[in-house]
Every structure is written in C-alpha cells, then in structure tokens.
Design a protein that fits this description.
single chain; 401 residues; alpha/beta; 3-stranded antiparallel sheet; 13 helices; 14 strands; binds pyridoxal-5'-phosphate
Length: 401
C-alpha cells in the first residue's frame, strides 16, 4: 500500500515523520510519569507543558485553556456533558442534522434523558438555516453545539455569527472543529467559542490523542473523574507520547498555515477536471464556503461503493460517506439532510487531500476515474427520468469495452 493514492484525509492522516521522531523518545527513553516528584518524571512533565503551549499557539489560546483528551469523540462528549452539568436547570440543546455521530448520537441519547434537542436544517448547499437557529434559541437553551466544517462536504458554518447569538441567550457554545484545525487559521482570542474540540489523527499526529479548548471562566465539570491531571478537568495519566506528537503536529500545522501547502490548488484542479470531463457530475456543498482540502462529488447513475471498490483496485483511496448498516446501503445523513436527489445521494464520493498529496497522484486519479465511471454506468441498474440517456450511454460504452 506504500504507493497508494491516499485521498481520504478527512478519515485520518499519515503521521508526519517529524511528529514520529518527536514522540518516539517518550515511548523509550523518557517513560516517567509527568506527575512524579522526581526529576525523571519532571522532564516528562516539561514535554507535556511544551505540547500544551504548541496546541494553544495554533488556536491563539492560553495553554491553561487546553485539556488533552484521547480523541475528538471524547472532546465532544466531555464538552457537551460539561455544559449540561454546569446548567442543570436548562434542558434545551441546539445542534444540526449534519453533525458527526460523536455529537449526533450523544444528542439522541440525551433526548432519552429528558433533554429537548433542536436539529437545525441545512440547505441544498449544506449551509445552515440561520433563521431556524434564531427562532429556536430560548432562555432554556443550555448549549449550542455545532461543527465548524462538515467532514463529508467540507462546508463551513458561520460560527462567529452563531456564537454571537448564543451569547445573547446565555447559552454555552461548543464547536466541533475536528476537520478545521490546521486547515484554516483559528483565533480563540477573537472568538465567541466557549469550547472547541480537535483530534490529533486529522492533523498528522497518531490516533488516540486529542484536545479540548475550554475558555477561561467557562463552567466545566470533568467527564473522566479521577486524579488531578489536567488541573482536575480530565483524570487519567497523560498520554505523553501522544501529547508530544500533537504538540509537534500543531507546530507544523501552524507553519503550514503561514507558508501555504498548495492543497487547495490541487483540490480545485481535481474537482474542475472531474466536473468538466465526466458527464453528469455535480459538486455537493457550497463551492466557496468550504475547507480547502475537501471535494464531495456526485456521480449520477452509479453506486458510490462500486466507484470506491473500482478505484481501490487502482490503489486509490477515497470515501463514499455512506454507511453500510445491516446489509442495507444507507446514504449519508449529511447528503440526505441537503435534500439531494436519489441518483446523487447514492453515487457521491469524498476526496480529501493533505499537504502530502502530490500532483502526480491527482493526475493518476484523473487518468483512472473516467473509465471507472463509464464502465459502471454501462452496468448501472439505475432507472430514472434520465433513463433514455442511460440506455443510449450504455450502448455507446458497451460498444467500447
Ligand atoms: N467530529 C468530526 C467532525 C469528525 O470528522 C470526527 C472524525 O472523523 C470526529 C468528530 C471524531 O474524532 P475521533 O475520530 O478523533 O474520535
């Protein structure tokens, strides 16, 4: 798999070699407990301090506002539960229909614990229905929890406008920024965000480490109750190698944001080439209000899974955004919430790039993909209003292969 074309970076990223080099000594030489009184543990404690400063710097936050977690899911759970525990008399939560399951499934769970949850709609470009948001805020709203950008389409929500209004109603504002950190600049000093989740494995650190930003003064109760680690906000001996790795990854991400990576140019090139050379393709999500690395494209009249499997045979990794549950292919809840037509829902592919994506890799995708789509359309069982088109096209393609 060494030579695979990896365009699934919103799922997870390759660990940067510099990150690996930084963390390795903390798995071998420096294995002390950062809470120990001796010098051996103390020097490990210093590494944790540096990691915290590096993550804080990426967010323009204070190091005391960073709590290390095990992943994005933990960060989301910790923030949401903390916000509710801090305001026991308020029973209303606002979120959106397109959140990651880390938020969505927790909210569904909270409904069973007598919380009322408003799931905000999005339009056909994946943008938030702001008037619905405005109308749903009440004095009883404890928490507004929204993703900064969507993991499937990359569409960015108007986070600061949302936060401004949340403040007017005294609601705590949590943002799942797992897909955003390292991709666009963030500045917590000029933000309305109270809590923000990030995850290491999306920014070239390993899996198993994340962080939660908690603005100073925000009422917070720990999810993991235990020792005094993380100033009593998250019990459990620190994942020191993970923290060192996350710190280094944050430092590298910060310099990439300043220097630029060329990721957006490659994404745009790929996207434009697909949309102009392969018939019946559409971009899913807003063309501009979007992460620079993500492109979600609908290939009408084909199954996304079939495209993925065919690309996989050519060593190309992407994602369909559909979940295969109990033998039935469920279309993505995000694309469904956008109200996309059936043929697009079932044939959508997410390409997500990273700073390691090369021009040659993009060219390989463009070399392979048109043939894949042609062949699959020739075999496609879809019938629709466009069935006439399909029959004609099948005949042309079958004659070719
Ligand atoms: N939130 C978003 C938007 C994500 O994309 C993901 C992971 O894909 C998560 C949360 C969960 O992060 P983790 O895999 O670190 O638990």
């Amino acid at each position: 798999m060494k030579d695979c074309v990896y365009l699934d970076n919103n799922a997870t990223t390759q660990v940067d070699e510099e990150v690996l080099a930084a963390m390795l000594p903390y798995l071998t030489l420096y294995y002390g407990n950062p809470s120990s009184m001796h010098t051996f543990g103390g020097q490990v404690g210093l590494a944790v301090k540096t990691g915290r400063e590096q993550v804080a710097s990426l967010l323009r936050a204070d190091p005391s506002e960073i709590i290390f977690t095990s992943c994005g899911t933990e960060g989301d759970n910790a923030a949401i539960r903390a916000a509710l525990l801090a305001q026991p008399n308020k029973r209303h939560i606002i979120t959106s229909k397109v959140e990651h399951p880390a938020v969505l499934n927790l909210c569904k769970n909270l409904e069973r614990q007598n919380y009322t949850v408003t799931y905000l709609s999005v339009d056909n470009q994946g943008q938030l229905d702001f008037s619905e948001y405005k109308a749903s805020l009440t004095e009883n709203t404890a928490l507004v929890t929204l993703m900064y950008a969507n993991n499937e389409t990359g569409v960015i929500f108007p986070i600061e406008q949302v936060g401004q209004l949340a403040k007017e109603y005294g609601a705590i504002f949590h943002v799942d920024a797992v897909q955003v950190v390292g991709k666009i600049p963030l500045n917590m000093q000029e933000s309305t965000i109270d809590m923000l989740t990030l995850s290491g494995h999306k920014i070239h650190a390993p899996k198993g480490i994340g962080a939660l930003y908690v603005r100073r003064g925000t009422r917070f109760r720990p999810l993991l109750i235990g020792g005094h680690q993380e100033r009593g906000r998250r019990g459990g001996t620190e994942n020191v190698p993970g923290i060192v790795a996350l710190g280094k990854a944050a430092e590298l991400a910060e310099s990439c944001l300043i220097m630029g990576t060329g990721e957006k140019e490659l994404r745009d090139y790929l996207e434009q080439a697909i949309l102009t050379t392969i018939p019946d393709t559409v971009l899913n999500g807003h063309a501009v209000q979007r992460l620079p690395n993500t492109s979600n494209i609908g290939f009408k009249f084909v199954e996304g899974e079939a495209i993925l499997l065919s690309m996989n045979q050519h060593g190309i990794c992407a994602s369909s955004g559909s979940a295969c549950t109990s033998g039935s292919l469920e279309p993505s809840h995000v694309l469904q919430a956008m109200g996309l037509p059936y043929t697009v829902l079932h044939g959508s592919i997410r390409f997500s790039l990273s700073r390691f994506t090369t021009q040659d890799q993009i060219l390989k995708v463009l070399e392979v993909l048109p043939g894949v789509i042609d062949r699959l359309r020739a075999l496609s069982p879809f019938t629709s209003d466009d069935a006439g088109w399909l029959v004609e096209r099948k005949q042309t393609v079958l004659a070719k292969y």
